[in-house]
Amino acid sequence: MGEVARPGAFNLPAGGRILDLLALAGGLRSSYADQEIIVTRQGLDGDQVWITDYRSLINNPNEHNLLLAGGDVVFVPEYSRQIVVLGEVNRPGAYQIHQGARLLDAIAMAGGPTDRAELGAVGIYRGGDMRDPAEFAVGRDRILFQGDAEENPEIRGGDVIYVPETSKPDWNKILGVLSGVNTFRQILDWVLFPGGER
Fold this sequence. Notes:
Radius of gyration: 27 Å
CATH topology of the largest domain: Outer membrane lipoprotein wza fold like
Helix content: 25-40%
Shape: elongated
Largest sheet: 5 strands, mixed
Number of strands: 8
CATH class of the largest domain: Alpha Beta
Low-confidence stretches: 128-141
Number of domains: 3
CATH superfamily of the largest domain: Outer membrane lipoprotein wza domain like
């Protein structure tokens, strides 16, 4: 089922595996290496779910190319290429990414960092990573990366990128306020002490 050329029911010979089934279904519609592939099997103790991706199937078939059994359901979900960039960027919002996009690409798409951005503490949040059963069961958001944007990790569809505000003082604002206070004090002195006497 899902994002394959010919979704449907197939009879696999004994010993058939995920890659064999994908070949029978005409292959994946996308060419993304991190395209997820989900296998569900009904058992006496309830449903079992395995999640892998195409890269793992190709690079490490001994571990990820699961032996299939009758009644297994293989689902290839639609690949999401959308991310959200929030915080101290010039144009926060949702953006489409290309395969292999990295953190700095996302920040650039969002108009670059503002003057108040703290690029040394950027976070990438990936909600409930389905490959981690504990996180999948709990369904909590988790931080995938938190650190310096110069490390420039790869991002993927569904990520939320947050650029925090720096904790350093904004001297332009401070000087503007002090300048205003100074002007106010001068006006007050002029009103209260018109002759300059105190």
